[in-house]
Amino acid sequence: MNKKYLFFIFYILLIIGCSSVYEPVQKQSFLKQEGTPRFTTITDLNKSGIDNIYQGKYVFLIPEVKSNQTFNIFYQLGVIRAYESLKIENKIEFIEEMKINIDLFEKAFFVGPFKSSMVQDYSLDQDKDNFLFMNYSEVGKFIPTNKMMQINLIEYFFNLSEGYKFDVIASKNEIEEFKSYSNFPYQLSRTNLNFYSILAPENDIPRILKINESNNRFQLLNNKDSKILNHFPRARKDIKNILVIPQNEEELYELASLIRFNFGLEFNILSLSYNLSNTLSKSELQIHNVKSVDVSYSAPFGFDLNKNRSFSLGYDAMLLSFAIKNKIYGEIRGLNGIYFLDEDDLFARSYIN
């Protein structure tokens, strides 16, 4: 009797086990770091060794349409380009962020919103892991603003070497804003960053590079000596890396030209471009050998900053959303910048062009 009873229990358990629904375990895939701050290629997530596990919808919350027409057009073009490149089969949808009702969506991953007040509300009231916010959030994952990503790149240089220094040239307001926006430790800011405010660049750049002092020394010697002296002014030897924060494209070209004209031929000139919004001149950058910190200028719209940034942000929003939902972690290179993604956090920095 007992044997028959045990056999019956075993048979029932066998049937239950065979009829259970199999749910695949989501594996994690980790990508290697390239290290270089320059654009090389877009990370091919299709080669990450993982299938498209996520089967839900991607919902992109876009800014108010009427006042953001140009941005929305190129942002959505970027999303679609990435969608096609990744060969994603999930449904995607674009909805104006002010008109969305989150509760109407099931099995959806939300990319957005952009509006900071909405980001704060959703990060507190909704499942933060179901969002990739498009503005700063204290909780959950978000793509930083272009400005924040550019400043993050400066910190990257300090991490390369303890002795890495920048001499920052900008207007007084830009310097104060840079200081308030960056999170560098006080000791690092004091020892690795020298700030020089400018008001009249034609007078200020020679003063900063101490060309005026060189000329004054020559005049003093020339007045005391009857011999003819050959004079070759020299820029400062204690400066190697100059960081400029121009307020517009014209100021960038002017500052770079004055630095080179005043014998700063061997300096490395790096420009933060977050104040610029028009089309950059590739030839001006090449002539003065200026490296611009920004999205990749290898993107389809190149040096047209507004179109390029919008398109690149859209591309990377789709790229990162796919990575997040399919648990692909590590260094991810897009058009907008370089990202470091893990299960809990997302960090980003810009490229050097």
Per DSSP, the total helix count is: 11
Strand percentage, roughly? 15-25%
Largest sheet: 6 strands, mixed
* Overall pLDDT level: 86
**CATH level-four homologous superfamily name of the largest domain:** Response regulator
Q: List SSEs in N-to-C order.
A: HEEHEEHEEHEHHEHHEHEHEHEEEE
Shape: elongated
Give me the secondary-structure category: alpha/beta
Radius of gyration: 27 Å
Q: What is the CATH level 1 assignment of the largest domain?
A: Alpha Beta
Descriptive overview:
The protein has two domains: 167 residues, Rossmann fold (3-Layer(aba) Sandwich), CATH 3.40.50.2300; 127 residues, Rossmann fold. The termini are far apart. A six-stranded mixed sheet has the order 8-7-9-10-11-15, sandwiched between helices. It has a five-stranded parallel sheet with strand order 3-2-4-5-6, covered by helices on one side. The protein has 353 residues and is α/β, with parallel strands linked by helices. It contains eleven helices and 15 strands. Helix 2 crosses helix 11 and helix 7 crosses helix 9. Helices cover 39% and strands 18% of the residues.
